[in-house]
Amino acid sequence: MKIWLDGGLQDSESARVSVFDHGLTVGDGIFETVKTVHGQAFALTRHLDRLTRSARGLGLPDPDHDEVRRACAAVLEANPAPLGRLRITYTGGHGPLGSDRGEHGPTLVVALGTTTRRPDSTAVITVPWTRNERGALTGLKTTSYAENVVALARAREQGATEALFANTVGQLCEGTGSNVFVVLDGELYTPPLASGCLAGITRALAIEWTGAEETDLPLDVLQRADEVFLTSTLRDVQAVHRVDDRGLPGAPGPVTAKAMRIFEERSGNDLDP
Ligand code: PLP
Predict the structure, then answer these.
(1) Ligand 1 centroid to 179 CA: how many Å?
(2) Domains of the chain by range and CATH?
(3) Whose CA is nearest to atom 9 of ligand 1?
(4) Peptide bond before 218: cis, by omega within 30 degrees of 0?
């Protein structure tokens, strides 16, 4: 497979990043996962804007959007994959051991992975750990994902595919790699960014296209919501049919099914909404 590294395409087998890259030694990096549709990147402008916001949050130099676009196009052209995802990784780069960055400058890697089609509905769990809604990294899409790895492993142990977090004040926040929406009395709600959740691109599109309202929701809303769904680049809109021990038979319910339909139609009509 061909990946983009150091300004050009390289063979993934032989491409090398320094063992002193700060993405590896201190988790000093950011990333984007971009869906590909018919061999093209979906919503790339929004992903690049978020990449820049994350870079600024970490004090990394602004990524060069033209280079990232060229890298994505080159990787897609070199590796045709029918159901794929681009992974853009941008790190602090080679530097001394410790937290101070070196002079070398950032590392940019663009690679392509395959994805499988997600089922229309899934099971989720809630976890006892909290998202920090006021941390230095809140809202940034950093490579420091170990907390999500741990929570997702807990979900898998319980036959679920996603784990949902509350924040430190007990409000529903997000999943390890998704945002969450709930239906109450026919109305659609999602936690606000102030809950500490990531500004998901699928979330933003779902809000714009369905008129969902952003509002604080206690975690236990999941025990009484009529419908629950997740959004993410790799799930699009995915219904939830179980939260912990509570079944939600009939998922996707009517509001979720409508959101799925709208999302499929609108995203199919516009590659860069
Ligand atoms: N929240 C977290 C923590 C994520 O990692 C992701 C995506 O990976 C999302 C939400 C969903 O964001 P998006 O719709 O941009 O994929």
Answers:
(1) 6
(2) 2-114 (3.30.470.10), 121-269 (3.20.10.10)
(3) 178
(4) no
